[in-house]
Amino acid sequence: MPQKLILTGDVNLMNVDDPAVPFRRVAAEFKSTDVVFSNMECCLYVPPAGHAVENEGFFAEAQAAEALKIAGIQAVGIANNVNYGEAAILASTKRLDEIGVPHTGAGANRDAARAPVIIS
Questions:
Q1: What is the mean pLDDT of each run of 10 residues along the chain (120 residues)?
Q2: Which of 38, 48, 84, 120 has its CA 20 to 30 A from that of 55?
Q3: Using an 8 Å Cβ cutoff, are 88 and 96 in contact?
Q4: Which residues pair with 36 in a beta bridge?
Q5: What is the rounded distance in angstroms from the CA atom of residue 32 to the CA atom of residue 28?
Q6: How far apart are CA 7 and CA 73, in angstroms?
Q7: How far are the Cα atoms of 58, 71, 73 from residue 36, in angstroms, in the given order?
């Protein structure tokens, strides 16, 4: 049986105060699809004041991750966020796990980072 897959480009949740807003216009389409996989272009992490420039990046508040669930995004790739530092990656994977959004591409160790996302 044919299935419908949507792959989205960069999803950046920086400055999202209301998780219902970012995907409002596409949520119905996403929810009518078998699988939606997005490239996560931010970390779910608030860096401490005065963080180092070498760890500069796109950071979003943890509650912004709810936008993924509201939209019907079923999995995310986070491989492009690895240069934002270990704390940012671990905070992101923890939050994604909390809300039940599978992820691939980064993790606490090499095996976790390389683990595939399987959606059945």
A1: 91 95 96 95 85 73 97 94 81 96 95 92
A2: 38
A3: no
A4: 6
A5: 6
A6: 10
A7: 22, 9, 5
